[in-house]
Specification:
The complex is a heterodimer. By secondary structure, chain A is an all-beta fold. Helices cover about 0% and strands about 55% of the residues of chain A. In chain A, the strands form two sheets. In chain A, strands 2, 4, 5, 6, 9, 10 and 11 form a seven-stranded mixed beta sheet that branches. A four-stranded antiparallel beta sheet of chain A has the order 1-3-8-7, with no helix packed on it. Chain A is globular and about 40 Å long. By secondary structure, chain B is mostly beta strands. In chain B, the strands form three sheets. In chain B, strands 2, 5, 6, 10, 11 and 12 form a six-stranded mixed beta sheet that branches. In chain B, a hairpin with a 2-residue loop joins strand 7 and strand 8. The interface between A and B is medium-sized, with 28 and 25 residues.
Chain lengths: ~120, ~120
Amino acid sequence: DSGVTQTPKHLITATGQRVTLRCSPRSGDLSVYWYQQSLDQGLQFLIQYYNGEERAKGNILERFSAQQFPDLHSELNLSSLELGDSALYFCASSGSRLAGAHNEQFFGPGTRLTVL
Amino acid sequence: GNSVTQMEGPVTLSEEAFLTINCTYTATGYPSLFWYVQYPGEGLQLLLKATKADDKGSNKGFEATYRKETTSFHLEKGSVQVSDSAVYFCALSDRNTGTASKLTFGTGTRLQVTL
């Protein structure tokens, strides 16, 4: 168990809909990352938040957005969903204020999104 | 930009065989290198890491050495078990300046070990 939790585990929805994926980082971790894993694109970085602020952006579509709240949990919002958005979405955390800065990331179990 | 190239899979081995999964990278500066493992139906787990040239990461019988001269980080295990069957991802991260940075992953190599 990595200590990173993600809900829901599975999500099935229709095209055009909007969903929210939730992530709780390991206790003390300040950074949250979102990754998308799909068959055709592999594992791709979407976005990083550090202590509530956006820190880095990757291949994230404009239809997608994220935020990190004061309690450090994060949400990834996906809107106007398309069939091609079906994928496994992982959250990872790092940067424990207790252990000092380091670049090891711990992954949650993922949310499998199916768009029908 | 950064990139990671892994050998194509699947790799099928008999139990107790020797494993090598090749990984090479392209990066500016001096990245940290990682191997992650994904068991069926699960998330990614960090297997091992190396943060500077000539470092050797090791865990659970797996080893990989950070080779700056060949920009490689090949994963090896002397004797694989059926329980090692999984997908293995090589990844790199820019050297951090206070906070970790995003991981760039290879395409993953599926390993299947048979009795």
